[in-house]
Each structure stands twice: as structure tokens, then as C-alpha cells.
Amino acid sequence: MQPFQRSSRRNLPWILVVILFAMRFCATATAAETYAWHSVRIGGGGYVSGLVFHPRERGLYYARTDVGGAYRWDAASSRWIAITDWIDADEANLAGIDSLALDPNDPDRVYLAAGTYTSDKVGNGAILRSTDRGKTFQRADLPFKLGGNELGRGNGERLAVDPNDGRTLLFGSRGAGLWRSDDHGAHWAWVDTFPAVATAPSATAENRWRRQAIGIVFVVYEPTTGKPGQPTPTVFAGVSTRETSLFRSDDGGRHWVAVAGQPVGLRPNHMRRGGDGTYYLSYGDEPGPDTMHDGAVWKYEPSTNRWTDITPIPRNGKPSGNGWGDIAIDPVDPKVLMASTFALYTPQDLVFRSVDGGLHWANVFARSRFDHSAAPWTKDHTPHWMSTLAIDPFDSDHAMFVTGYGIWASRDLRGFDEGHEVNWWFQDEGLEETVPLGLVSPSRGVPLVSAVGDLDGFLHGDLDKAPPQLADPPRYTNGEGIDVAALAPRTFVRAGRMRNASTIVRAAYSLDGATSWQAFATEPGESNGAGSIAIAADASAVLWFADHAAHAFVTRDYGKHWTPSEGLPASAQVFADRVDPKYFYAYAADEAKLFVSRDGAMTFQPVAGAFAMALGAGKGAHAYALPGSRGELYIASPSAGLIHGRDDGSLIVHDSHFDAADSLGFGKAAVGTTKATLFVAGKRDGKRGIYRSTDDGATWLRINDDSHQFGQVGYVTGDPRVFGRVYFATGGRGIFYGEPLVSPNGLGKRAP
């Protein structure tokens, strides 16, 4: 035993060295570095589908969006705070909020009905409940799907808390009827006595792709019929149908009857209660937001069961040409009303105001001024999709309305009644709800240029200041493809699409760092716009594979002449080598095949060898060319992980630790190496996150945390000039950039 003891003591330092080295390696591979995360400021940009004020706490209100989660207004900082950034890519369907409810007697409780789509591709929805104003949530899974980004998403609210008994909630689903919870939303049961019209074909609507269930669009309690601590007996619920649509329960939602005398022929979308017990309902012939062709506003007085048509623009017995989005009541004076048109379009949607309970109306926008300074791009957009209109319960001068691109607010509303002008400002500070479809961080000039769905794109000279849109012409409905010449970084190309027929060529180029743009001279004959576009490293050629085209086409004179490329399957993603202008690549995700061209995109050949064998199958993969190295490529695949190889077919490494790699980007190399820093959004060893490697993928750091997952992350791009900085796009939270924190005192500091 003695020799063994001496040997153990002699070798102990070496064992400790090995153990410590192993511990350090494991920590390097799995630990999270502290990063600061910031929105790349655009200033709104997406559809805010609902607003809810808390009735008993001044300055407390929430917004829900169709694809970007939910927000709470923070009065202290005068900005919106996202409360659903913890949702990761695996649960990204929960980022569409179909309804939002507050407990009127407990300001800390907030409920979200979360679920973006009802299609077969996604999972069921969930009710998310919080007791700390959205800082943390608990989840109750539902046995059906929700449609936060489907027709009728601006209706509401479907979810309601009993104002006398906060334990009880009712939820009107799209296709599964009415549901009830008696334990603060933890468990739910189907109310089988609700009328069958809620799940009938008449409570559905057709969009561009398929028929969608709309179902029950609002639940409203009558608080005066109950006592504190006991369930409220009287409840109303509205179904999106042109048949009998409004129902009443007088036993807390267990049994229902149709409300007598109600109008038919239009679908209700909102029901609002005035302080005097009068109700107001807005209607449209369709659920919105895609379109409405007819609509009305009705007053309902339950005490006498009297219904009165108070539509601000009289219908005169004919379809009005527009619907009505919402109606708001001043909480101080119940005779003061506001109503918003929906899909009026000519000249534009409008807001009307009445001070006599709807007998007479005045057009608020006729004496309104809109301040665009907070988001300059909004000057090119008129208010539309105004499906929610609200007056602050503590300030009759403060009103807000939603649009398809954000929230407008006023602080001097009552001046309108005295003949003054109403001033509106864009109240979207912190609420970034865009869907970027391409990002480029060039080695010279501005730090970032984006292509954005619905808004074309932006030149981000100051990441913290809302920029104007990319200079026009051309102006695209969607900016979808964007690239910069690696060796000529002031030359950009982009491609987009137009919602309506247009003579604008759907690809453009810039020779001055994306400051000004010129449309290509022509499009290839079979072009459908958008698609993927790539520019040679020295800007000598542009390769464009438009949507649904049979061929990719190459031009060397910005569209004056086009030549079809040979050897590519349809819908391949094209991209350029970052060193050699003769090298182009394409990746066909449906076939999991990689292609290379060494003759300036004239002909392509498939990449073979071990690299090709590692690609796996499945849609959603993307391919990338490594900066500074000809022919060196990466594949980020949701099914096959991260694959690194060369255009000759040789495989460098297939990182088996990545269960899924959704997107990859390259940034400035760390000190002591020439290899670009790698950033990957994906799942590594079962853990979703954003990962960074400074040693060519040998080790990885997770740089985000569970509170900053941001839903579906894509278009990851490192900054070639700032080490550690990464940009990425989200599926509804806009663009983010992250930088490592330097924290010698433990307090944290934003990196320079």
C-alpha cells in the first residue's frame, strides 16, 4: 500500500491539471458568456392586434401582436417591454397572441392565449398566465390550435377574467367552442352548452390559402350583476357569423340564449361597455384584417333591450364599402365615443368622435397632425387595420389606435371637441415587430443593411435610431434577397416583390453603400421577383434565381442582358464566394444538394464526396461561403446540424453536437487568429441558443440565456469590424444585435 500512496501523492498535481483542463474545456463548450441584447431600432413595423388597459392602475397596459408576442408598457421608461422573449424556436408558434386578458382586481395577473396558426404543421395553443406582470409565466396547454396570425386576429377579446371572481376565466376559441377555468387559468374545461353556431361553417372565413375558423371573438362580463368573491352571473359572448351572433348567460356562462333584437347580416368583432351600462358593438361583413366591404356600429341598452344603429357613415340600406374596426368609450363621460373604420382606403381609414352617445359624429383625422420623427418611414404609410381603439381609463386625453404597422397615440384628444387640432405620435418605443428577410453587415460603410417583409428594407447607420426606408425608387412590398460584394463593399444588390401588379423591376443595385438605388434595366423573361440574389466578390456579375423560376440568370451589366445559368434545380438558394469572383454556389434544400460554379455562374456542377454525403435531407437548410477562404463552405441544417467542407467535396467536420443549426453568420476574428468568428442559432446538445466560436468550431460558447431566446432566429450575421457583435433576424421581434459585456466590477458594461 505504501508505494501506491507515494505514487498517488506524486501524481496528484498532474491529475488535478487534467481535471481542471477538462472542467475548463467543458465550461468553454457549454457556458454562456454575458451579452447585452438590443433591438436594431426600426420603430414598430408590424400589426399590433390588440391593446388592453388595466382599469385600476394608471399607466399599466399591454399590447399583443400577431407574430411578435406581447408587451407591457413601462411608464417609468416610457417604452414597451417585451414579455415573451423567453419563447424559443421550438415553441415559436406561441409568439402569435390570439387574445390577452387582465384581472381587473389584481394588477399583477396577466393572461395570454398563445398560438399563431391553426394549420397542421404546428402544435396546439396554450394559455400563458403570469402573477408578476409578465416577468415569468406558467403554461396550460390546450387541446386545440389558436390563430394569432389568422383572420379575425384583431377581434376581441376572446379571453376574459371574471371581474368579481378572478379565479374564473372564459375563453372563446376559434373552432372548439367556449372553455372555462375556475383556477386562474391552470385547468380548462369545455362548456358544452354554448350554441353550436360557434363551430358551424358560418363562423369560418376564407383567406387566400384556406378556410379558417373564427369562432367566438369576444367574451364580456356584466360586472354589476355579481358580488365580489362570487362568480358574475351575466356574461355576453359574440360569434363571428352573419347569423345570430350575440349570446347571453345569466348563470356565469353555463347556459346561453340569443340576445333578442340583435342585428344580423354582419359579423361582430368588438363589444365595449360604457360606464352607464350601455354596450357598443362594431361589425364587418368579414372578420378582417385582410378586407371588409360592409359594416356598422350599434348601441345596445340591456335594461330596455333596445338596439340603435349609430354608424358614423350612414349605410342608407346599401353596403358601405368599409367595415368598422372598434369603438371606444370615455371612462369619465360614457356619451363620448370614438369609432374606427376598417378597409375604407378611399381616401383612407378614419377615426370618428361623438360627444352625444353616437347621435352625431366628427372626423378626427380632418383636424389631426401626425408626428413621424420617432419613425421617419411612417410618413409613407397611412393608418389602416385599425382594429383596436382605446381611451386611457385615467386620462381622457390619451387615446391609442393600432395599425398594421404599429400604434398611434394622442395626449390632447379633448381639444378636438373645442375645435383644436389633435396631435398624434407613434407610441412604439421598444415595440419592434418586423419580420426581416435578409441582413448584410458590410466591411465598410454603415454597420447593417436589411431586407424586411412588408417594409422593403432599411439602411441602419445608427443601430439605436429609427432609420428611413431604403431610398426609392424602387420600393418593394417585401424586401427578400440582399447581398454585398465582399471585395467591393459599397456595391449592393437586392430583390423583392410587389403586392400589386407593377412595372417596377424587382431587383436593384447600389454603388454607394446602399445609400441610393437603381432598378436593374430589365428582369429575366421568366422572373417572378424576390427569390435569392448574389453578387460576385468583385461586383463583376450578379446571379438571380427569382421565385418559381425554372432557371437562375446571370448579368454583368445590371440587367441589360441576362444569360441563363445551367445545371441548377428550381428554387435553389444562390450565393457567391467571398474571395474569388468566378466562384458561385447554390444549395437546393429540397434535395439537400450543393452546387458550385467556377466560371462566373454560367454552369454549375453538384458537389460530391464526403461533404455531399453529410448534408442529410430535409427542408430549411442554408449554405454559406466562409469569408477570406475560396471554396470553403458551411451548411446550417435544422435536421443535419452544422457541416463544414470544401467545394471539391472534402468534408472538414460534421459537428454532431448541433442537433439543429438554423442559421450561421461570420464576424470579426478574435485577437490571435485570422479565422472569422462563427455564430450559430440552433440547438446544441439539446439546448436551444445562440452560439459563438472563435477557433473554427473547435469549441463553442452559448451567448444568450433562457430569457433571451427571441423565438425563431435566422439570418445570423456577425459584424466584420466589431469583434463579438452579432446581428440576427427574428420571426416577429425585428432585428437584434448583441455585444459581449465587460464586467470587471460585476455590474456589467456595454462593450465598445
Task: Please tag this protein with its features.
single chain, 752 residues, four-stranded antiparallel beta sheet, 2 helices, globular
Give the SSE layout.
Elements: H1 2-30, E1 35-39, E2 48-53, E3 61-65, E4 70-74, E5 79-82, E6 97-102, E7 110-114, E8 126-130, E9 138-141, E10 159-161, E11 169-172, E12 178-181, E13 189-191, E14 204-206, E15 211-213, E16 216-221, E17 235-239, E18 246-249, E19 257-258, E20 267-273, E21 279-284, E22 295-301, E23 306-309, E24 323-329, E25 337-342, E26 351-354, E27 362-363, E28 368-371, E29 389-391, E30 399-403, E31 406-410, E32 422-426, E33 436-440, E34 448-452, E35 456-460, E36 478-485, E37 488-497, E38 507-510, E39 518-519, E40 532-535, E41 542-545, E42 553-555, E43 563-564, E44 573-576, E45 584-588, E46 593-597, E47 605-606, H2 609-613, E48 622-625, E49 632-637, E50 641-646, E51 651-655, E52 658-667, E53 677-684, E54 687-693, E55 701-702, E56 713-718, E57 726-730, E58 735-740
Parallel strand pairs: 28-32
Antiparallel strand pairs: 1-58, 2-3, 3-4, 4-5, 6-7, 7-8, 8-9, 10-11, 11-12, 12-13, 14-15, 16-17, 17-18, 18-19, 20-21, 21-22, 22-23, 24-25, 25-26, 26-27, 29-30, 30-31, 31-32, 33-34, 34-35, 36-37, 37-38, 38-39, 40-41, 41-42, 42-43, 44-45, 45-46, 46-47, 48-49, 49-50, 50-51, 52-53, 53-54, 54-55, ...
